Amino acid sequence: MTGAALPFFVYGTLRPGEPNHALCLAGRTALVEAARLPGAVLHDGPGYPYALRDRGGGGVTGDLVHAAPGAYGELLAVLDRLEEYHGPGHPLNLYERLRCDVLRARDGALVPAWVYVAAARAVPGPRIADGDWLSRRAVRGVPRTP
């Protein structure tokens, strides 16, 4: 296991109702709560989004995912594999896993969390202006998974 046992901030296909939520998070989480990553922007990608750190960015909407008791190591491995993260700065990374402060919606607290952001080999598409992957999908007529 690398680093501290932090919650994960998810903003795309791992959010509730999206395909990878059920595939990767089911049975491995204790709590999912609304949150926002300040100082970041969101870009469309090939079926999934990319967050990029940008101090002038309006933020990215997502969820804080807390691992179930005893499931942290497994959850970390599953998410690293899904996000094609091979270690800090690895040339094959699609995403880098960074420790970032995330704004928890329920109380406005800043919470440290792991966030997967676009790595050097990622090719982000157009910016999603409101920073919310789910609203972008709804606008384009892509149905959400029930």
Automatic annotation (TrEMBL):
Signal peptide: none annotated. InterPro entries: AIG2-like_dom, GGCT-like, GGCT-like_sf. Residues 8-134 form the Gamma-glutamylcyclotransferase AIG2-like domain. Transmembrane segments: none annotated. This is Gamma-glutamylcyclotransferase AIG2-like domain-containing protein.
